């Protein structure tokens, strides 16, 4: 077989591999990082559908129209009747007012937590959040940096709204799930991180947004080991999610029977997560470790073996690299072997075969 035909076969194989790697895939969820949790509900909240931690208490809304408050250990439970199918709950920490997301019709309701009553201010979202099923509407709600983020169960998208007086609403943007998931069920925001529950997939994923003024894109964060921060919650009907330091609360809203509110301790602090969002520089060592090291704006580094670039030739060529203008992507060329990384993840693998026709 001529060298050109041999290389052509390699080229075809490389092209096929590239096409496969270019197809969006679902990340394999990590094992849940906490030990067995404790159910602190004791059958009180029938259908816990969303949660927040505020003012030293855990607040829960239920599908049957009730707003509950309790101690962080589940003690001293007290309920207020708001009415409607309540699926989301959040707080404006500057004003101290709570906001419930109601499904059918999709609406945000303002609540005074001192009295446990609605203030009368409401914002109708049904003109923007449209579902083919009345039971797959607004299912998650959080407030972040001046905007409401409302999750639509039907398609998994998050709709970002700015609200004003007399029920005025402005749609800022719509954010697709980077995981390709529908059935979003819970949202909680804290210190730059969106904790997101997808019920059908039994998934808890941690995202950040690209721009708080005009958010358009979620980025899946990495955990402290550099792995994508998506966790397997195990089989259930998870909807509510809230956080208090390293204590995580997950509400389970079953189709039948009483709901559960699970308290998990030692959830990984996000202060220790890696941040591969902005590349600032790269360096290479071809004499000793035969590696490329990428340095990010966060101070995190990522080291890649050049030997993994050179299949099937097992040769180290001179290394060149190009960083994208927005800093999110770096392309590394080692001889004919090209790899492209975005946010620390390999998104493209290519091998050039010159000189063959």
Keywords summarizing the entry:
357 residues; Neuraminidase; 4-stranded antiparallel beta sheet; 1 helix
Please describe what this structure looks like.
The chain has 357 residues and is mainly beta. It has two domains: 101 residues, no CATH class; 235 residues, Neuraminidase, CATH 2.120.10. It is 6% helix and 46% strand. It has one helix and 28 strands. Strands 14, 15, 16, 17 and 18 form a five-stranded antiparallel beta sheet that branches. Strands 1-21-20-19 form a four-stranded antiparallel beta sheet, with no helix packed on it. Strand 12 and strand 13 form a beta hairpin. The chain is elongated and about 70 Å long. The protein starts with a helix and ends in a 6-residue tail after the last strand.
| DSSP strand count | 28
Please give the count of helices: 1
CATH class of the largest domain: Mainly Beta
Helix content: under 10%
Main sheet: strands, sense, barrel: 5 strands, antiparallel
Strand share of the residues? over 45%
Mean pLDDT: 85
CATH fold topology of the largest domain: Neuraminidase
Distance linking N and C termini: 15 Å
Q: Structural class, from secondary structure content?
A: mainly beta
- Computed over alpha carbons, the radius of gyration is 24 Å
- SSE arrangement, N to C: HEEEEEEEEEEEEEEEEEEEEEEEEEEEE
Residue runs with pLDDT of under 50 for 5 or more positions: 1-26
- Name given to the CATH architecture of the largest domain: 6 Propeller
Count of discrete structural domains:
2
Oligomer: single chain
């Amino acid at each position: 077989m001529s060298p050109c035909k041999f290389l052509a076969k390699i080229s075809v194989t490389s092209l096929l591999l590239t096409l496969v790697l270019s197809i969006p895939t679902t990340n394999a969820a990590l094992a849940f990082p906490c030990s067995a949790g404790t159910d602190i509900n004791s059958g009180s909240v029938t259908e816990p559908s969303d949660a927040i931690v505020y003012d030293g208490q855990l607040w829960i809304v239920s599908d049957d129209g009730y707003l509950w408050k309790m101690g962080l250990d589940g003690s001293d439970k007290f309920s207020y009747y708001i009415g409607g199918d309540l699926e989301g709950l959040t707080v404006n920490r500057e004003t101290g007012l709570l906001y419930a997301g109601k499904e059918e019709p999709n609406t945000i309701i303002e609540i005074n937590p001192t009295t446990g009553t609605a203030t009368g201010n409401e914002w109708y979202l049904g003109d923007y959040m449209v579902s083919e099923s009345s039971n797959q509407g607004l299912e998650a709600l959080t407030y972040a940096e001046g905007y409401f983020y409302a999750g639509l169960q039907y398609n998994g998208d998050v709709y970002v709204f700015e609200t004003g007086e007399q029920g005025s609403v402005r749609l800022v943007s719509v954010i697709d799930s980077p995981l390709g998931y529908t059935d979003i069920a819970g949202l909680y925001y804290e210190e730059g991180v969106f904790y997101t529950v997808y019920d059908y997939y039994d998934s808890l994923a941690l995202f950040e947004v690209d721009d708080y003024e005009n958010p358009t894109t979620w980025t899946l964060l990495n955990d402290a080991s550099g792995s994508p921060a998506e966790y397997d919650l195990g089989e259930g009907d998870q909807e509510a999610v809230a956080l208090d330091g390293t204590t995580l609360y997950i509400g389970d809203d079953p189709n039948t029977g009483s709901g559960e509110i699970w308290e998990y301790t030692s959830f990984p602090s996000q202060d220790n997560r890696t941040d591969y969002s902005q590349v600032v520089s790269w360096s290479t060592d071809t004499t000793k470790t035969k590696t490329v090291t990428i340095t990010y704006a966060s101070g995190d580094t990522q080291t890649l073996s050049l030997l993994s670039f050179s299949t099937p030739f097992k040769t180290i060529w001179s290394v060149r690299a190009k960083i994208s203008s927005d800093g999110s992507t770096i392309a590394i060329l080692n001889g004919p072997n090209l790899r492209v990384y975005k946010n620390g993840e390999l998104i493209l693998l290519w091998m050039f075969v010159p000189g063959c026709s």
